[in-house]
């Protein structure tokens, strides 16, 4: 079997979106692909034995095994490391020992690493980072230490992604799917709330993010890069669009929230590497996301 790119971790949010965008990408994971995807699939065992790839020729790796469920990861002493560092370490060690020639490895980290007490906006890749915020942020920070260790063997890009959103069948802790599932569940009298409408974030639609990542595979760059829209929108802006689409309203509880109260990526490095700019506005992306998720079954506990 010979194809250019494998994607490891194909059953979360981003994995299926990548596979749908390019049927030639091979999915590699412990669980079968969702039935709507027709990509080739290679199963790895629970013990993370990557020898299943010994006879597979590939040049690029998109590594997506991990978890961003802050609520779970931050309440367990080791789970964030197990999910976001251990698997990556095993895979990179496998590649090194296999003596492969690799064009590019993509690792996903987070903009939440950037130190909110030393933030200069728009935030570029040289802004100070604070890994001690919580277990999740620490795990992503450590994953970048790990990739740096292996850069003498492989070109690796750490994607410091902002708030990526798009249609999903999953119940996820991220803002956009949380609000949309709330709006799609219950009846017209259901009382909907949001913690705080004031925080501003950099939202990027999943299709734009995928286009950028696939373009980065063709560059000579190795190192961290911000991926976002370069535009700041408030949680209230997101609520406003979903309210219009659902004919429901969100009450602002004005509760204290963690993380940056205002954030926007500096994407000048990204745009110096590839000929790219986001093509889907926040409202357009939210409309696409809402309309598609209307066709999905609402998660059982909603």
Description of the molecule:
It is a single chain. The protein has helices at 14-21, 70-73, 79-98, 135-150, 175-184, 206-216, 235-246, 268-273, 282-293; strands at residues 5-8, 26-29, 41-43, 60-63, 104-110, 156-161, 163-165, 192-194, 200-205, 223-227, 232-234, 250-252. 36% of the residues are buried. The chain has a single domain (66-293), classed as NAD(P)-binding Rossmann-like Domain (Rossmann fold, 3-Layer(aba) Sandwich), CATH 3.40.50. Helix content is 33%, strand content 17%. Helix 3 packs parallel to helix 4 (135-150), helix 5 runs parallel beside helix 7 (235-246) and helix 7 crosses helix 9 (282-293). The strands form three sheets. It has a seven-stranded parallel β-sheet with strand order 3-2-1-4-5-6-10, sandwiched between helices. A three-stranded mixed β-sheet has the order 7-9-11. It has a two-stranded parallel sheet with strand order 8-12. With 302 residues, it is of the alpha/beta class. The longest helix is centred in the N-terminal third of the chain and has 20 residues, at 79-98. It contains nine helices and twelve strands.
